[in-house]
Structures are given as structure tokens and as C-alpha cells.
Amino acid sequence: MKDIKTDRLLLRHIYESDAEDLFEYSKEPNVGPNAGWKPHTDIEETLQIMEQVFVGKENVFGIVLKDSGKMIGSIGLIDDPRRNNPHAMMLGYAMSEHYWGKGLMTEAARAIIERAFHELSIDIISCTCYSSNTRSRRVIEKCGFQYEGCLRRAEQRYDGQIMDLECYSLLK
User: Fold this and answer.
1) What is the pLDDT of residues 145-154, one digit of tens each?
2) pTM over 0.90
3) SS3 for 105?
4) Buried-state track 20-31, b at ≥16 Cβ within 10 A, e below 16
5) Averaged over 151-159, what is the pLDDT?
């Protein structure tokens, strides 16, 4: 997918040159744990993860503030690991704590959803969050996802804690 512009954001592919911005929000104490990964400890760890998860991925984007050019998060679609359906994708995202509560993630998610349903041959997008992650649940609900249920004791987080997953989906 090509770049996406919204009122306040530019959603664009992520490059190695984004390592400093990505490290800056990935080391924050509440960003990773809410998504299941430990906060990054150094830029080398960020560079390794960038290669595995972000760089060169067609449907994964950095969330960049238009007014400053600063990358404050990431968002993207991957194959849905819980659905054996070639027309299903899963939405995932993370954002710096400094920008929570401003509607930016909802703005980014709506733009990705719109593009996905109009340019990709998918007919369902799923999204999950830990039961304790009320902020993420609010983004999911504001984007129109329907609650499917709780997948209990579904995922072991980096710290060994077993987490419940709240499951949502959105049909085209």
C-alpha cells in the first residue's frame, strides 16, 4: 500500500532510518506490555525487531505527525493467525504514551481499515487486545469492530504472565 494521509497524520512505510523514533516509543514502560512485548532496552534491539516486523512489510506503517514529521507509533495489517481464511487480516498497533487520548490511533486505524477494504481483497479484519487494555478496546470499538468474545488464557506475555484476549472483527 502507498502512503496514507489523514487530517493530522501521515502513515508511511518504516525504514531503518526511523530507528531512533521507533526506539523512543518502544522503550516507554506502558507501550510494549499493553501489546505483549517487553519495552526495548537499546537501539540495537529496536533495529533487530524492525527487520523482523516492520521494514519491507507491505501493509505495515509508521504513524507520523504531519506537523513535525515525528514518528510516534506503528500500525498495520498482517495475516490473521487465528483464521484459516486468505481474505482475513488482523490489525495491530502501538503508539507513544505521550500521544494517548488524542484520537490519533483511531484516526490512523480508520484510515488503514478504509484502505484495506477498498484496495485489498479482504472481507474481514480482526483485532485483539488484552482484557486489561481499556484504551485499545476503546479504539477498536470506535472503529466499529464487533465483539466476538474472550479467548481465555490465550497468550503468554514476554514476562510469563498468561493473558486473556478480547476478540473483535469488522466485516467489509
Assistant:
1) 999 999 999 9
2) yes
3) helix
4) ebbbbbbbbeeb
5) 95
What dihedral do alpha carbons 137, 140, 144, 150 form, nearest 10°?
A: -60
Residue 67: other Cβ atoms inside 10 A = 8
> Which residue type occupies 93?
Y
Structural domain boundaries in the chain: 4-122
Q: What is the pLDDT of residue 1?
A: 66
**CA dist list (Å): 53 to 49, 62, 78, 92, 98:** 6, 12, 10, 11, 23
CATH architecture of 4-122: 3-Layer(aba) Sandwich (3.40)
Which residue type sits at 8?
A: R
Amino acid 45: pLDDT: 93
Q: Average model confidence (pLDDT) for the chain?
A: 95
Residue 75 burial by Cβ neighbours in a 10 Å radius (0-12, 13-18, 19+) = buried
Q: Which amino acid is at 21?
A: D
Q: How many residues does the chain have?
A: 172
